[in-house]
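Supplementary Methods. Inverse-folding protocol.

Structures were first reduced to a discrete structure-token string of length 156. This string, shown here, constituted the complete conditioning input.
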């Protein structure tokens, strides 16, 4: 059931992308695609791990046959991790870009998040600043999750 929901979201966003052809529809498509990547990666992991109740199998996969097909699908844990990380990293990016596009604050609509923070064209590009912020947050959460006492003075 969850797979069908995410596939329907992606199909609806593709229809909107072809019908509207605007920046918002591209952001919506990226948002739905990254959500589908993350959810499908987690569902593949759950299927490969096994040991879940029949009610959860029905909710996630509809039948035990679909769960078994996903369980023996030829994909490594590394590839699943990259798929989940890609969806997890792209989702906030597209969400923030969509929110900035719908924002009614004039400074954000006009300039994005770049407020002359540095020198050179890369530092004034809102995409660069946004992706650097999301990447820094992701690196901070993954690398320093076990060393809060050591990294805290440098990262906060």
């Amino acid at each position: 059931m969850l797979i069908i929901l995410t596939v329907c979201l992606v199909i609806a966003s593709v229809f909107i992308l072809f019908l509207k052809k605007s920046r918002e529809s591209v952001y919506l498509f990226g948002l739905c695609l990254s959500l589908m990547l993350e959810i499908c990666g987690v569902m593949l992991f759950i299927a490969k791990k096994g040991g879940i109740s029949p009610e959860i199998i029905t909710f996630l996969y509809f039948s035990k046959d679909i769960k078994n097909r996903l369980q023996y699908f030829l994909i490594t844990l590394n590839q699943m991790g990259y798929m989940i990380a890609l969806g997890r990293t792209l989702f906030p990016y597209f969400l923030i870009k969509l929110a900035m596009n719908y924002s009614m604050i004039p400074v954000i609509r006009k300039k994005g998040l770049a407020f002359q923070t540095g020198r050179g064209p890369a530092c004034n590009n809102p995409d660069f600043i946004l992706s650097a912020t999301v990447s820094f947050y992701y690196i901070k959460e993954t690398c320093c999750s076990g060393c809060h006492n050591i990294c805290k003075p440098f990262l906060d």
